[in-house]
């Protein structure tokens, strides 16, 4: 029962907030004197294509759950982006006579492709390090997760609401105990 409750905390108490806007950039108004100049190709590297954001999950009570997951990404094209993130998760379970706490650290690499204006595909490789079995061992070890799936995005001006469903392709007994399949992520986005 304890494992199911922890999985529930991971699924429903994390809200992922991404400050990004995948829509085509709005062209800047041109000065009449600039109309005769020819435009060159858009450079690959531009600070305007960088976005940042992350996730935050909080739950307090008999089980305390804190998830901090900042990300930084880059829009390679108007529809395709890639980025990295870091993760810190704290779990404290006070339900039994011998309570335990976990400190989990990790990182991820992700890609996202906008298929239509409202639907996108998402893939993510995540590595987390922690003591996944605190009752039987004090050893910390790595857990690798490969998440694939997609989501819906609803735009409103310069912000959006995102809903994603991701499946773990490298499911293990530990990942099943801590992360359900599919993992649902709900968040908001605010364009920079």
Protein described:
This protein starts with a helix and ends with a strand. It has 192 residues and is mostly beta strands. It has two helices and nine strands; from the N terminus they run αββββββββαβ. The protein has a nine-stranded mixed β-barrel with strand order 1-2-3-4-5-6-7-8-9. Helices cover 9% and strands 54% of the residues. The protein has one domain: Beta Barrel (Porin). A hairpin with a 2-residue loop joins strand 7 and strand 8.
Key traits:
disordered N terminus, 192 residues, 2 helices, Porin, mainly beta
In short:
With 192 residues, this protein is mainly β. It has helices at residues 2-12, 173-178, and strands at 14-19, 50-59, 63-75, 80-93, 100-114, 119-130, 141-156, 159-168, 183-190.
Biggest beta-sheet profile: 9 strands, mixed, barrel
* Separate helix tally: 2
CATH topology: Porin
Q: Structural class, please?
A: mainly beta
Domain tally: 1
Q: What low-confidence regions span 5 or more consecutive residues with pLDDT below 50? A: 1-26
CATH architecture: Beta Barrel
Order of helices and strands: HEEEEEEEEHE
- Gap between N and C termini: 43 Å
Shape: elongated
Question: What's the multimeric state?
Answer: single chain
Radius of gyration: 20 Å
Please state how the strands of the largest beta sheet are arranged side by side. Answer: 1-2-3-4-5-6-7-8-9
- Proportion of residues in extended strands: over 45%
Based on DSSP secondary structure assignment, what is the total number of beta strands?
A: 9
